[in-house]
Amino acid sequence: MKVILATQNKGKISEMQTLLADMGIEVIAMDQAGDIPEIVEDGSTFYENAMKKASTVAKATGLTAIADDSGLEVDALNGQPGVFSARYAGEHASDQGNYQKLLKELQNIPSGKRTARFKCVIVTCKPDGRCISAEGVCEGAITEMPRGKQGFGYDPVFIPRGSQKTMAEITKDEKNKISHRGMALRSLKEQLKGFLNDL
């Protein structure tokens, strides 16, 4: 069964393909699905953005679509960057640009006050408008320096609670077990089998 993933982010596509492989689902990227209208992520919550992406892509392609919206919430910054995580340092900012801006804003915050969490909401929609959703949260803290070469986004500056390593220092398998996206997708998978077979 083909499911379209409503993202251009290669890191997300790779993670999703790995996490859905055992269900016999073929995950295809948005750029393989033809013309899709531009989607402006103007929601005030991760859920609103994920729902907008999934429903728009499902209607445009006639395929079941999965979309996630995720980001980093830092307590010392009142929950920022939140829904602006991907464009925190500007509209076309690089991952490095985003986390360097974050580190600069936290430079006077002591280690005990650098608590943060990755949050992910995943929505799956059918072309007829039926949708399901799931959420995952990974608590942790922000480092003072980036560490590690794995992962993407803010992974080099985020240490999950109970770990000594950043998200960018652990393997893909280790990350999938504890990540916000892994948690959300495992929750979604519980609902997904029935949802996809319910024609």
Provide an overview of this structure.
The protein is of the alpha/beta class and 199 residues long. The protein has one domain: Maf protein. 32% of the residues lie in helices and 23% in strands. It has five helices and seven strands; from the N terminus they run βαβαββαβββαα. Strands 1, 2, 3, 4, 5, 6 and 7 form a seven-stranded mixed β-sheet that branches. Helix 1 (10-20) links the parallel strand 1 and strand 2. Helix 1 crosses helix 5 (180-197) and helix 4 packs across helix 5 (180-197). The longest helix is centred in the C-terminal third of the chain and has 18 residues, at 180-197. The model has no long low-confidence stretch (mean pLDDT 91).
Topology:
Blueprint: E1 2-5, H1 10-20, E2 26-29, H2 46-61, E3 65-74, E4 80-81, H3 95-105, E5 115-125, E6 131-142, E7 158-160, H4 172-178, H5 180-197
Parallel strand pairs: 1-2, 1-3
Antiparallel strand pairs: 3-4, 3-5, 5-6, 6-7
Helix pairs in contact: 1-5, 4-5
